[in-house]
Amino acid sequence: MPRTKGDHEARRREVSEAVWRVLAAHGFGGLTLRAVAAELGATTGLLTHYFPAKRDLVAHALHLLEQRSAARPRRTAGAGLSAVRAALLDILPLTAEATAANRIWVSSWDVALADPALSGDHARRYGQSREKLRDLVATAQRLGELPAGDPARIAAGAQSFVLGLVVQALFAPTAFPPDRQVELLDDYLAALASAVPS
């Protein structure tokens, strides 16, 4: 009896969940057709129906990562500097779930840098994040909570700061526990805000 479209979609969801579990356990360095097949309890032959090549598997994994990142709950804040702070806090590995997601993101950098198309996709994702941050910065500037200047430049600096903090926290979690990360972010934002004329 032929499989229905619903069966195919259900199987694809099972495959996606197996891909995610491999990513969570081993990062992109451990993402192989064999590892996903073992996680799924299937053959690599079955997986080639979904991912004819390793690059297809990696592209799917990056898409999953983007979807899950977009779907996770965000802090709510008003407008202005508090909204900028909330957006930056959402990036940091402050919880076990956020730490796992950040580990996967960081492990994806090497894979993406090795492939021009994947690299372009990553650049687009980070660019979109900067654009959202730029809009929040511009609002904080209009409210007088951040100094005048190019909001895109301030957003790029803030994104760079927080991504650097992510890396520090992943490699040295005891030196950069959640409360320390928040303190460092607040120090950074206070320094930015202090440039506002009184």
Description:
There is one protein chain. The chain has 198 residues and is mainly alpha-helical. The protein has helices spanning 5-26, 33-40, 44-47, 54-71, 81-89, 96-113, 116-142, 151-171, 178-193. The chain is elongated. It starts with a helix and ends in a 5-residue tail after the last helix. 24% of the residues are buried. The mean pLDDT is 88.
Largest sheet: none
User: What is the number of strand segments?
Assistant: 0
Mean pLDDT: 88
Q: Beta-strand percentage? A: under 5%
What's the end-to-end separation, in Å? Answer: 76 Å
Low-confidence stretches: none
**Count of helical segments?**
9
- Overall 3D form: elongated
Name the structural class.
mainly alpha
Short structural summary:
The protein is an all-alpha fold.
List the helices and strands and how they pair.
Layout: H1 5-26, H2 33-40, H3 44-47, H4 54-71, H5 81-89, H6 96-113, H7 116-142, H8 151-171, H9 178-193
